[in-house]
Design a protein that fits this description.
By secondary structure, the chain is an alpha+beta fold. The chain is built from 6 helices and 19 strands. It has 2 domains: about 120 residues, no CATH class; about 200 residues, Rossmann fold (3-Layer(aba) Sandwich), CATH 3.40.50.880. It is elongated, with a radius of gyration of 39 Å.
């Protein structure tokens, strides 16, 4: 019995030195076999992470360049095509001066002049070249002619990895148009009526440049004033008996309110006539003036319950295009004539003409609804050739 106890206690003892050496040797061999695989996996992971970082920087640069540089109004500064770390400065869509440049740390920065922020990088090359549309091979010498910008970049990542990316950005913007110039016909330029003052303020609020023309002016004065404008507006406040047909053949657009001007402007062989009404039934939704409305849509242009509108009557111009009519009737109250279209009497219109559905002695433009003012504005811009 004692012998069995001694044997049991012997077998519960620790490892021998030989056993420990063998176990450690076995573990070392296993580590020596596995460790290179871990290093390969780690290197692959680092490579993928570096590639992902480079691609992310490239994506940021591409999207940013196409969002901001493509909408530039003009280029003011661009580095030479031989400069590896270039710079470009431009006016953005809001008129602010912005720039891309590479900082001392090798990163690309963007922002308004004097307030740049980190955008992407690092880069070892950020070469910028500008081209005109007439020559896409040789960089443009004049920055004002640049319409295409190419950026050749080398973006660096971790572990010494780098990749090349080339971006091409076409400047979509066109030169900003000049303000539309309106020649407003009035009874007395030195003392505007309340009607004319409200009209003047509205037109000025739309950003138009306004010149006044006395309806008593002679033909030579009318011609000289028209030569310095884009469109003429004849409000219902002016004296058509004084103005007569002096604007009938001016080579710029004319928009008319006054019913008594229809025959003088050769829209028809008679003056217009009034009728009780508040709106326009759209009959031509494809024309720029009425393109925002549906066919037969009734557009309320007057807010005054007892207001009157004006319709065209008599023998109308051959080139007259009806845009709107009286509700439930075929009386034309909004119409246009394209340049070259036949006028009443056979002559061709030297420029665009528009007849509005309101305007007579005593008409108050405070009665116009927002839709009425919108039709007026679109008529002016179409007659001036801006639409």
């Amino acid at each position: 019995m004692e012998q069995r106890i001694e044997q049991s206690e012997r077998f519960r003892g620790g490892w021998t030195l030989v056993e420990m050496i063998l176990a450690l040797s076995l573990v070392s061999v296993v580590f020596l076999v596995i460790l290179p695989q871990f290093r390969i996996l780690q290197a692959g992971w680092d490579s993928k992470e570096s590639a992902s970082e480079i691609q992310q920087n490239a994506r940021v640069l591409q999207e940013h360049l196409h969002r901001y540089l493509a909408a530039a109004r003009s280029i003011s500064v661009i580095s030479g095509s031989g400069q590896s770390l270039g710079v470009v400065e431009f006016q953005d869509a809001a008129g602010q001066t912005c720039r891309y440049e590479v900082g001392p740390d090798g990163y690309v920065y963007f922002g308004t002049a004097g307030n740049l922020s980190l955008l992407a990088g690092p880069v070892s090359r950020f070469q910028i070249s500008g081209f005109s549309l007439d020559d896409l091979i040789n960089p443009a010498e004049e920055v004002s002619s640049i319409r295409l910008i190419r950026v050749s970049s080398v973006i660096a990542g971790t572990g010494g990895r780098s990749e090349s990316y080339d971006f091409s950005v076409y400047l979509r913007t066109e030169p900003e148009p000049t303000a539309l110039r309106i020649l407003l016909v009035v009874g007395n330029p030195s003392s505007l009526t309340a009607y004319e003052q409200q009209l003047f303020q509205r037109l000025e609020g739309w950003g138009y440049e306004i010149s006044l023309l006395d309806d008593h002016a002679g033909q030579s004065q009318v011609d000289a004033a028209a030569a310095a404008a884009d469109v003429v507006f004849i409000p219902s406040s002016c004296g058509c008996q004084n103005l007569g047909s002096k604007l009938a053949m001016v080579p710029i657009g004319v928009v008319m309110e006054h019913e008594n001007c229809h025959d003088d402007m050769r829209i028809s062989n008679q003056e217009g006539s009034m009728y009780l009404g508040w709106g326009v039934r759209v009959v031509n939704p494809t024309h720029p003036i009425t393109s925002s409305y549906a066919l037969n849509e009734y557009v309320i242009v007057l807010s005054y319950l007892f207001g009157d509108l004006v319709r065209v009557r008599g023998s109308t111009a051959g080139g007259l295009v009806p845009l709107g009519m009286r509700l439930l009737q075929s009386h034309v109250n909004l119409a246009a004539v394209e340049a070259g279209g036949a006028l009443a009497g056979g002559a061709s219109a030297p420029a665009r003409r528009v007849v509005l559905p309101w305007g007579y002695n005593g008409f108050d433009n405070s009665w116009l609804t927002d839709e009425g003012w919108l039709i007026l504005r679109r008529s002016i811009e179409w007659a001036a050739g801006r639409m």
